[in-house]
Sequence to fold (319 residues):
Amino acid sequence: MKKNEHIRRWGEKPYYSLDYHLKKTFGEKVYKVALDGGMSCPNRDGTVSTGGCIFCSNGGSGDFAIKHDSDNDITKQIESGINSLKANGKFVGEKFIAYFQSFSNTYAPVSYLENIFSQAINHPLICALSIATRPDCFNEEIYDLIDRLNHIKPVWIELGLQTMHEETSALINRGYTLNVFEETVHELRKRNITVIVHVIIGLPHETESDFFKTIAYLNTMDIQGIKLQLLHVLKNTALAGMIGNFHILTQDEYIDILCGCIARLSPDIVIHRLTGDGPKDLLIAPEWSKNKRLVLNTLSHELKVRGIYQGQNFRNGGF
Ligand code: SF4
Fold:
């Protein structure tokens, strides 16, 4: 891409932001309603392991989701989520994404999944479904269900990869190997399902170069979106017990890595997130991450000063 072409391509930001993508796709600002499908995770219930990923809190990465009722009433959750957005004074339009966030949202019998996902997709204010899960929580029936739903309204599958490095994966107790991820992406893309991948910056003992390798690897995969998440050390996690044995990124280091990552990332991949929303009451470190507005403003400033835009250093197949 030529310098400044991004201004025509993505509006004001020098990267392909989710906001831009949503406005282009749905014609207006769209909010996410975080839902709790009442599922667990095979990495916590003993199927894969009992400890879970070392950074994962008891909320299963869904600390902002509305809590699950035993009657599985997703319609009620959606309405309550929209009312909370309104009560928080946010401008709320007519389109929302149903976001199944907590734990592994394809880890249940297909009849159960069909019930909760159908309630969401049939709600008149829902324009798309976003389902966060693990790549090892699929089978043919689940792929077929998602395929059917994707013909009604768009379905996005969010996969928590965190890193491409097997050594780090073992350290964080992710509980599946890279080839499982690749197979799942292949199956989803065969059915034209949008794939969004979560990665974490600042995992123990990973260097900047390790992280850039994860980005280069993802550039070679057929994925449509990425969530970049700062490693948060939360209370009551195994990671909290490791403090002192690994480096916690400073804000300057984090901004440097983000700049490098945006420059390397394929210009076709939508950036859904550039930092994180760790629950403040559980956060142990890094303290600076509590001021998310400052982090994002500093990043915008640095991208401008350094003249960086998404895909600037992207070359097919990595770098
Ligand atoms: S896969 Fe997700 S929910 Fe399960 S332990 Fe890891 S982060 Fe937590």
Summary: The pocket of iron/sulfur cluster is lined by residues 41, 43-44, 52-53, 56, 60-61, 103-104, 134, 160 (CB under 6 Å). The chain has ten helices and nine strands. The chain has a mean pLDDT of 92.
